[in-house]
Prior knowledge:
The structure is a homodimer.
Chain A: E1 4-9, H1 20-28, E2 31-35, H2 36-39, E3 50-54, H3 59-71, E4 75-80, H4 89-99, E5 108-111, H5 117-125, E6 126-127, E7 133-137, H6 145-157, E8 161-165, H7 175-184, E9 192-197, E10 205-210, E11 223-227, E12 233-235, E13 238-240
Parallel strand pairs in A: 1-4, 1-5, 2-3, 2-4, 6-13, 7-8
Antiparallel strand pairs in A: 8-11, 9-10, 9-11, 12-13
Amino acid sequence: xxxxxxxxxxxxxxxxxxxxxxxxxxxxxxxxxxxxxxxxxxxxxxxxxxxxxxxxxxxxxxxxxxxxxxxxxxxxxxxxxxxxxxxxxxxxxxxxxxxxxxxxxxxxxxxxxxxxxxxxxxxxxxxxxxxxxxxxxxxxxxxxxxxxxxxxxxxxxxxxxxxxxxxxxxxxxxxxxxxxxxxxxxxxxxxxxxxxxxxxxxxxxxxxxxxxxxxxxxxxxxxxxxxxxxxxxxxxxxxxxxxxxxxx
Amino acid sequence: xxxxxxxxxxxxxxxxxxxxxxxxxxxxxxxxxxxxxxxxxxxxxxxxxxxxxxxxxxxxxxxxxxxxxxxxxxxxxxxxxxxxxxxxxxxxxxxxxxxxxxxxxxxxxxxxxxxxxxxxxxxxxxxxxxxxxxxxxxxxxxxxxxxxxxxxxxxxxxxxxxxxxxxxxxxxxxxxxxxxxxxxxxxxxxxxxxxxxxxxxxxxxxxxxxxxxxxxxxxxxxxxxxxxxxxxxxxxxxxxxxxxxxxx
Lengths: 248, 248
């Protein structure tokens, strides 16, 4: 098979946060496949380049479509937001490969890394991810709420900084509040909590509070929530986690 | 004060993985401050731009130096590898602000996000970070080994994918082996383990094994180690973590 498939991420939003490697992959593609708003971030680069826009809820269909196009000899780029390997399209592509046409396993498939939302959100406020950290998607579309609770507890007991992706949506308005209740049972109420909306775009907005005051209604689909470790603190107008632990 | 300080990351190595925003910040600087090998990644951009290269072990001195230059009216860029907020210079800059000249708190300080090593390493092998994951630095220069053990245990019990930064150095040859012993007491021996050396550079090299077979001597300072979750698996020549958990 002579086609190819590259999975890329646009970064958090601003064109200046898309890597040159991703721009180059997009420029070479015959076909771009992705969720409409992500494709809209990409200026027209090439006459005859086809855009296949789809809804956000059909990752696996989108992945299959992209693989079929590549198998037919097209040079396909699958466009995610952020980094394609973090709660995005790269895993969906390999899921589709696993259950799909065995010939897809011989395709030229490549992933290009990008700037994921958590890094852009951290940069907006200082350096809250300066220590050990974890990233948890709060969506229970693909995993059970009990798994999410187990991970939140583990992250709290391990004193990780916690980045929450997909903290809330219209279909899931209550889960972030439940997560805060759970975290308050382990972590200090004074722990810094950051709500960073539209990080890495020109509309970025930060709300800084504490775990004791944090409210589930402070986030929506475009918000990344960061909950500090025990050492995370404020200096001037910045929040950061020192590299050194207390007493070390 | 009229100076400024921007903390940037070059990404994992290849020029094509440095964001345009970071390139633009570097192009505007009067002074670049950083560890020598990171500065060497940056082509000369501007006549009269000063480069202040230093050793890797003196982050706090380097941060103070950069802040002094900014306070004196210079436009300073502090150059990290990867993303500056992940086990890199951004936290060191805010540590220096916290204990330094109170006037530094009024400086124009900004962080530019970048592509951190874990994302580049994941992209080399597929999508191992496709589920919830955590990042742990295995260096005990700034925190105790007991804290690291506590976090490894929490990450294993939470069934996170685990990315290990700084897995080994000449001064710390034994810790990765100890980490594997600890993880084997909780996680299945068949769990995929990836050693990705020089990810995101032209010399990238991947060794794929299992937790049962993983050996601490397989990593050095330039290696990023990824340990799968219970769902992480191989398809074709790729390793990935499905978004969907078993049975969900």
